[in-house]
Input
Amino acid sequence: MEINSLLVFQDNMYFFFLAYFLLGGGIKYIDAAFDDKVFKKRNAIIIAPFLGILWSYTMLINEISASILLAVLIAVLIKGKIDNMAHLIGLITIIIFGIFIILFIDGNGFMLLPLIFLTSAGIIDEVGNDIIDYNKSQKKVRFRYNFLIYFFGRRYLMKTAIIYIALVGLFPLYFVLAFIFFDESYIIMDLFSKSRQKIDST
Output
């Protein structure tokens, strides 16, 4: 079997649906383990390399996926969100496995302008999310304030950016759905971890 057969999933939308769903939930699992102490840190460290391999593979087999996931990665790096051992292990795995793919499997690269556009949207989402997290304790009833909590809490700017790029024909629409799977999986894991916190506190 030729090593390039590892690129078999490069145009399989169902693979991207599953991969993005696992990546989104996996990232939040690690966050909850280290930030909220809901899950065991040991388990988060164990899954981190597997998430790193999946992230790198999913990113480098398809230039569109590379543009999306690399934008997410750059945004969180700029905002300093790689802030625990498991995330660092995952990042190192992404780099090492990415180099392996580039050298031996011939990855597909990325799209520069969409990458810049999506990275900018991702950074703004991260900044907005930090601001609403900082101000959540303030009770405000204005619709504008509550809408911003909803918008940045679910990081909708990057979703909107991906939809725009898909509508102008640079991305197939199924990558919009794949990114929604990524984000919704993250949110579902967040809800699950918060429910665990409430159960443990009773």
